[in-house]
Design a protein that fits this description.
By secondary structure, the chain is α+β, with helices and mostly antiparallel strands. The protein has 4 helices and 4 strands; from the N terminus they run H-E-H-E-H-E-E-H. The chain is globular.
Amino acid sequence: MLKAALSKLLRRDAAPTTRAPSAGMTRPQPRQPFPDAGAEARVILYVEDWCSESRKAERLCIARGWPAHREDLAGRHAEKIELFRTHQRRTLPLVFVDGRFVGGFAELAALEKLD
């Protein structure tokens, strides 16, 4: 059942979006705000800003056009520990698709490759 739900999510016809660099660009662009899908989100990411894997998961969702909601766990230590304990993980991000726990960035990237 989970595999079918994930396959539906990955079959979306949204093409990856890329931004062409301008000729005179010398500095990296500031980090764009995450386009939060809110209530219609199919992917929920529990992240912290310092985590490179969390940023990779965010960029993957943006590139694939997946509606996602970002939950920042900074300063919410008790909630983070409870999520780690419940899902038997000790790293971020924690990724949920259609309300089901998928894993972290590696699992999300693997699902993307199944498409």
